Amino acid sequence: xxxxxxxxxxxxxxxxxxxxxxxxxxxxxxxxxxxxxxxxxxxxxxxxxxxxxxxxxxxxxxxxxxxxxxxxxxxxxxxxxxxxxxxxxxxxxxxxxxxxxxxxxxxxxxxxxxxxxxxxxxxxxxxxxxxxxxxxxxxxxxxxxxxxxxxxxxxxxxxxxxxxxxxxxxxxxxxxxxxxxxxxxxxxxxxxxxxxxxxxxxxxxxxxxxx
Length: 211
What we know:
Helices cover 81% and strands 0% of the residues. With 211 residues, the protein is an all-alpha fold. The protein has a single domain, classed as Phosphate transport system protein phou homolog 2, domain 2 (Methane Monooxygenase Hydroxylase, Chain G, domain 1).
């Protein structure tokens, strides 16, 4: 039995911390899936659905923070727990931001680039949803394997974003309001995907640290 395993044997189980992160990952994915249902004419309904998931995420973060405040010994470092939790919450906040921007600025239907980024966001959050339960099992090698494709997804999203923004600025027919509206939504989506990569990196660092 290795030293880390010996420590885990004597540390109180506090499995609810893993449950918080697993629930957050599920809700982040649910929010991304809800956003990806955006088609012409249903922007308001999508915004309401995504906002509901964002509120669920906020509630889980609050539960996590309260549990951290009253727990002396946690199964992994409290800083790591808090960091992963808050970064997953960033994904939900930005997903909600994209949905709100579409409704607020009158985006009637998503552009091709928005649709592509929404699909990538769904794939990224699916990766996190699949990887997170492995933390409870201390399957650190499996976590690294599960999230290793996240960098490629982030690069794909970056290419879609850059190409779309370049086209917006080069199109002489697009007016300033439309340009700002489209760019704002694209930025929220791209930043949400960046946050997915941030979570993946934190999980990798945590796996190296504890594996």
